[in-house]
Request: fold
Amino acid sequence: MFFSPRINFDRISVPPKSLIAWVVLFWGSISFTDASAQVFGGGFVESSFESTQRRDGFGGELGLKVAFLPVEIFGSGSHFPERQQDPSLRVWSLGARIQIIPFPFVKPYLVGGLGLKEYEGGDSGATHSEEGRFLGLGVKTTIKEVKFYAESKYAFQSTSAMSIRLGASLSWGGLPF
Reply:
């Protein structure tokens, strides 16, 4: 007697969570040969618009980009110098950039995270801080290891503000997993 194995596909069921995990693992294994991360760091200029005032500042950021994920995690700090009666302002951010659509040369992304504003000096000489969140849109392009980006974000704090940031950062390393 000849044995012929038969598989009844009508009875095979895969839980949705398991199926998603397998698809992600399969996609990652065929799409990328480098399972590593890169550190990036750079500087930017920023304009902030609180109510009707415009303030110009500068800052820096440091972050991590994992090769097979469309996400960058970053920390940044901005400084807006004191001018006339306005106190100096420092803005600290911890956030993520998530790529929306992978165009070949220009890549749009969403940006969001947590922020802390610290006001110091001014006419009163008082110091105070505000915590909040931010959300925005941006676009980036990468030439070799240098990333150039422009983003606009809105900070949800007691003194909400819109800001525009133009920057460049350099990627280095290949941290293996």
